[in-house]
Amino acid sequence: MTKADLNKRPEQVSSMFDRVSKKYDETNDILSMGNAARWRVQTRHAIAPQPGEKILDVAAGTGTVSKVLADAGAKVTALDFSAGMIEEGKRIHGANPDIEFVQGDATKLPFDDNTFDASTVSFGLRNVQEPKVALREMLRVTKPGGRLVIAEFSTPPQAIIRTGYRAYMQLAMPSIVKLVSSDPEAYTYLNESIIAWPAQRELASWLREAGFERVKYRNLTAGIVALHKGFVPLSEAGSAPS
Question: Among 10, 148, 161, 216, whose Cα sits 20 to 30 Å from the Cα of 109?
Answer without folding.
Answer: 216
